Amino acid sequence: MTDFQNKLRATPVVDELKALREAIWFNDGVKPAREGLLRVGLTQADVEDAQARLRRFAPLIAAAFPETAATGGIIESDMTPALNMQAKLAERAPIAGRLWLKKDSHLPISGSIKARGGIYEVLAHAEKLALAAGLITLTDDYSILLSPACRQFFSQHKIAVGSTGNLGLSIGIMSAKLGFHVTVHMSADARQWKKDRLRAHGVEVMEYEQDYGVAVEQGRQAAASDPACFFIDDENSRTLFLGYAVAGLRLPAQLREKGIVVDADHPLFVYLPCGVGGGPGGVAFGMKLAFGDHVHCFFAEPTHSPCMLLGMSTGLHDAISVQDIGLDNKTAADGLAVGRASGFVGRAMEQLIDGCYTLSDESMYDLLALLYQTENLQLEPSALAGMSGPQRITASQEYQARYQLTATMMENATHLVWATGGGMVPASEMQGYLARGRSNA
Ligand SMILES: *Cc1c(COP(=O)(O)O)cnc(C)c1O
């Protein structure tokens, strides 16, 4: 306990977190990518393996979800410049370089970043079962798994997951499509429409009055007592992490297509909204594999739920929760309402994440309304968490000096704001978000 107290006291940013101020923390423990990557315990080959698995499943995805036919069953998002938004933001504070949006908000099937990791882990589990049962070989067209006989096989197996909403949507929809019996354990903050949509897909939804940590624990326990049930562990899963990491391997080609150069003179900054850490951690891992030291990765969290900033800055990782420093873990950014970070991600990425910052719900709503006004794009609040990053990095002489980023290099920079969700938010719900953003302005 004294060690715990000492670590807290030795970390000045904790006082800012306690006061709910919008804080920024730069990681003194960052190592050159080649060195830091060794700490992760996973390799480029692991991510390539995940990428190959997603390719094997592409014919199945294309057949099951017609909206993915155009990309041949590959679930990937577009990236777009946000020039109007950049101009609008610059009225308040400058952004050196160019602002881009990575539109995971518009990923097919579940409209959030969870369409990467969540769907991937369901597919990895289904493949394992189907290979063992002799239903497929690695070279088959996997769309045969959609046949009634295979669905009948999967229906004898169960999948369970705890979620604040979006992970449940991804895992629920994918699992139900294959025929699994799937149960989603939802925390109190999960939106009603997400529960309704899952039930409409035949997913069993269990509701809890507590937060995400409790929902996950309930799911874990329910699964532990049933050998036919596979629990997808958002707090610890390497499989989920690898599903997210594939994004990094695909990004170099996408950047080339857009004419964007990333090298020593043209840094890439990536801003990732962070809940438990698997999504942003996995993407950041893929980015570091792809771009090494030329990419700088930042995690963005709500002022009421800064679990990763707290865990990484104190070095306590999952041994501390935001409740331990008196915060309530209540935020409108439902994907980010997580009080305790993944112990796996924080430790694995300890030498690769350049920093974390927090922003208030009001800031997210404000940015949400501005993005709609300037770019006609509708996102959910959590997906705006990355949007205040570029101005904060542009303003930080400390950070630029640390990495010897000159003014010219900053002018050459690409700021990629990961827009993590919102594509499936019902219109009435979105009207409420926009109204709240406008009234704050
Ligand atoms: C889940 C989620 C995140 C963060 O992912 P974690 O793996 O929980 O860190 C960010 N944005 C949205 C919209 C999400 O649903």
Automatic annotation (TrEMBL):
Catalytic activity: D-serine = pyruvate + NH4(+)
EC number(s) recorded for this UniProt protein: 4.3.1.18
Alphabetical list of PROSITE patterns matching this protein: DEHYDRATASE_SER_THR
UniProt key word Cell membrane: no
Residues recorded as bearing N6-(pyridoxal phosphate)lysine in the entry: 114
Domain Tryptophan synthase beta chain-like PALP: 96-396
Enzyme class: lyase
InterPro entries with a match to the protein in the record: D_Ser_am_lyase (IPR011780), Ser/Thr_Dehydratase (IPR050147), Ser/Thr_deHydtase_PyrdxlP-BS (IPR000634), TrpB-like_PALP (IPR001926), TrpB-like_PALP_sf (IPR036052)
UniProt key word Amino-acid biosynthesis: no
Cofactor requirements of the protein: pyridoxal 5'-phosphate
One Pfam family matching this protein: PALP
Swiss-Prot/TrEMBL keywords: Lyase, Pyridoxal phosphate
Top-level taxonomic group: Bacteria
Protein family: Belongs to the serine/threonine dehydratase family. DsdA subfamily.
SUBUNIT field: Monomer.
PANTHER family: D-SERINE DEHYDRATASE (PTHR48078:SF9), THREONINE DEHYDRATASE, MITOCHONDRIAL-RELATED (PTHR48078)
Name assigned to this protein: D-serine dehydratase
Native species: Mixta calida
